[in-house]
């Protein structure tokens, strides 16, 4: 079994490991439920009540309510499943990714169009290099 902490030293990256997959199973199932229009409407009508129908942890529910996608990733969310939430909110993948990186949409687009995040810089949190 892979220990998720092995990957915690990578700055700005949450690796979707088998352990995170297991941890996020119900969170990801909730996200997939949003593929149905009637479920999106139920969720939008009362987000907390809809979330409480799922056996998710409180941390997972809070991440969804706060639209804190980085926290949701840490709690086992898969970005492709989490996309159902921001699509329900009328947000594009680019808008969500920009929010997750703390950048404006324009700055995020410019970075991606120029080749993405630079491989130069901090590569290890604990070593500061």
Please outline the major beta sheet: none
Strand portion: under 5%
CATH topology of the domain at 17-89: Protocatechuate 4,5-dioxygenase, Chain A
CATH class of the domain at 17-89: Mainly Alpha
Content-based structural category: mainly alpha
**How many distinct helices?**
9
Q: Ends: how far apart? A: 28 Å
Query: Roughly what percent helix?
Result: 55-70%
Shape: globular
**Poorly predicted spans:** none
Query: Element order, helices and strands?
Result: HHHHHHHHH
Q: What is Rg?
A: 16 Å
Instruction: Work out the number of β strands.
Output: 0
CATH-level-4 superfamily name of the domain at 17-89: Dioxygenase LigAB, LigA subunit
Mean pLDDT: 90
Q: From the 3D coordinates, which CATH architecture of the domain at 17-89 would you assign?
A: Orthogonal Bundle
Quick tags:
single chain, 129 residues
Describe the fold and architecture:
The chain is an all-alpha fold. It has a domain of 73 residues: Protocatechuate 4,5-dioxygenase, Chain A. The chain has nine helices and no strands. Helix 2 runs parallel beside helix 7 and helix 8 crosses helix 9. The mean pLDDT is 90.
Short précis:
The chain has 129 residues and is mainly alpha-helical. The chain has helices at residues 18-23, 25-33, 37-45, 47-51, 58-66, 69-74, 79-88, 93-101, 105-113.
Question: Strands, helices and their partners?
Answer:
Layout (H helix, E strand, L loop, with lengths): L17 H6 L1 H9 L3 H9 L1 H5 L6 H9 L2 H6 L4 H10 L4 H9 L3 H9 L16
């Amino acid at each position: 079994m892979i220990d998720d902490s092995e990957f915690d030293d990578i700055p700005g990256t949450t690796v979707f490991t088998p352990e995170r997959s297991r941890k996020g199973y119900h969170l990801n199932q909730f996200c997939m439920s949003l593929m149905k229009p009637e479920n999106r409407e139920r969720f939008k009508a009362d987000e907390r009540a809809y979330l409480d129908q799922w056996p998710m942890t409180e941390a997972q529910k809070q991440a969804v309510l706060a639209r804190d996608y980085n926290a949701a990733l840490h709690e086992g969310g898969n970005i492709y499943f989490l996309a159902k939430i921001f699509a329900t909110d009328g947000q594009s993948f680019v808008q969500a990714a920009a929010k997750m990186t703390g950048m404006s949409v324009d700055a995020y687009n410019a970075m991606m169009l120029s080749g993405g995040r630079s491989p130069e810089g901090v590569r290890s949190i604990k070593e500061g290099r």
